[in-house]
């Protein structure tokens, strides 16, 4: 696959200089090879399509379902590749895969139509914003294990969007614990690179979790940091806490020599998008999340 310059998923030319077409192709090849070699992976080969299904361990634990993710690589003839979908359907039955999720670029209309024609349902639209990190003076602290319970409670109460909440197949599961557990693991450094928080009168008013993409750095040389979760207590909203947390994340990325800071949100979350744009972020790319289920009823 040849990547054109206008397909590089960054609006800021300073970031586009890092991800040349050659760098993106190198990253894609490396990522695909790692997916194929990952534990529990299942490869599919159709006439015009190729894919790898990998376990979604976190989703499976949280929802109690056998969840997998389908990573797609296809040509423009994808909609005519009926043998591919037949193989996927047969595998889901044999592997007892109850929940198969995939993400594709929003502009890939042909693949979206093909997936929907073969039983996939769109459940989410995601937008990613990026910026070159900047120096900020902020009053934040790094959360420790002593803050974990308070942060986890705040996380569970704050999220009302995303596929864990809006997908009718998942709403019956204890999905809000996903945000709590992610927060606890981030504070304990089991995932990500740490958590920054703001306290008011001794109470946690909000926090932001940080992580990085080591694979991108290894294959392209670009250091990409990202915001995992950003949470503000309902009682502290309207006071600029969210903007302070985003600025703190940018400052952290700047001081740790990252080239780019990214953050993702649902397309329906207009307040979050306004916040990121006000903090100097620019739209980078967009994705659709679709899923197919087997033996699950809403």
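Q: What amino acid sequence fits the structure above?
A:
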């Amino acid at each position: 696959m040849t990547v054109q310059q206008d397909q590089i998923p960054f609006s800021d030319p300073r970031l586009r200089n890092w991800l040349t077409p050659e760098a993106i192709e190198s990253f894609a090849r490396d990522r695909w090879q790692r997916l194929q070699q990952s534990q529990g992976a299942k490869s599919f080969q159709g006439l015009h399509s190729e894919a790898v299904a990998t376990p979604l361990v976190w989703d499976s634990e949280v929802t109690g379902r056998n969840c997998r993710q389908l990573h797609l690589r296809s040509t423009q003839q994808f909609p005519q590749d009926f043998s591919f979908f037949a193989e996927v359907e047969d595998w889901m039955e044999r592997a007892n895969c109850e929940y198969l999720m995939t993400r594709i670029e929003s502009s890939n209309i042909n693949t979206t139509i093909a997936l929907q024609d073969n039983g996939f349902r769109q459940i989410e639209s995601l937008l990613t914003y990026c910026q070159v990190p900047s120096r900020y003076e902020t009053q934040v602290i790094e959360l420790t294990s002593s803050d974990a319970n308070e942060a986890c409670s705040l996380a569970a109460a704050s999220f009302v969007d995303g596929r864990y909440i809006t997908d009718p197949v998942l709403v019956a599961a204890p999905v809000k614990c996903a945000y709590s557990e992610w927060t606890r693991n981030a504070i304990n450094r089991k995932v990500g690179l740490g958590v920054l928080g703001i306290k008011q009168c001794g109470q946690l008013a909000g926090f932001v979790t940080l992580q990085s993409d080591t694979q991108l750095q290894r294959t392209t040389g670009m250091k990409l940091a990202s915001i995992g979760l950003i949470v503000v207590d309902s009682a502290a909203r309207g006071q600029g806490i969210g903007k302070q947390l985003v600025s703190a994340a940018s400052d952290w990325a700047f001081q740790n020599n990252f080239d780019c800071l990214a953050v993702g949100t649902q397309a329906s979350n207009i307040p979050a998008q306004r916040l990121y744009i006000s903090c100097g972020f620019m739209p980078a790319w967009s994705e659709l999340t679709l899923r197919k289920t087997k033996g699950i009823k809403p």
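Q: And what stands out in the fold?
A: The longest helix spans residues 21-37.
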